[in-house]
Amino acid sequence: MSNLFFFKAEENEGHPVDDLALMKRAYTNKKTGQIDDGLVRDVVDLVQTQVVDEVSQLQTEDDASTASTNLSRFRINEIVESVSSFFYKVQFIYFLI
């Protein structure tokens, strides 16, 4: 995973890539502003929910004055990868049935 992360950063002129933002931008219908693909929409929704949950957990574990309200881009990309991998596996199994 980390090699892929650094490869994508190199492809983006050294800046880390935000997979969630990239996915939302690529799949959002420009006319409606909505994600038409139900699978991608579900992945984005679940990733956003998990990010909020992790940030909330960090805030309750840390002192309120030092709590981080942002997850690292690397961690968000890990969540995107795990959630999308799960959804594509489920979709593949459903297709076989």
Structure description:
The chain has about 100 residues and is mainly α. About 70% of the residues lie in helices and about 0% in strands. It has four helices and no strands. The chain has helices spanning about 1-10, 20-25, 40-60, 75-95. It is globular, with a radius of gyration of 16 Å.
How is the topology of this model organized?
Layout: H1 2-11, H2 19-27, H3 38-61, H4 73-96
Helix pairs in contact: 2-3, 3-4
Descriptive labels:
single chain; 97 residues; mainly alpha; 4 helices; 0% strand; disordered N terminus
In short:
The chain is mainly alpha-helical and 97 residues long. The protein has helices at 2-11, 19-27, 38-61, 73-96.
Beta-strand percentage range:
under 5%
Overall pLDDT level:
77
**Poorly predicted ranges (pLDDT <50, ≥5 residues)?**
1-7
Oligomer: single chain
Shape: globular
The description of the largest β-sheet is: none
Q: What Rg, in angstroms, do the CA atoms define?
A: 16 Å
Helix content percent band: 55-70%
Spell out the helices and strands N to C: HHHH
Distance between the termini: 31 Å
Number of helices: 4
What would you call the structural class? mainly alpha
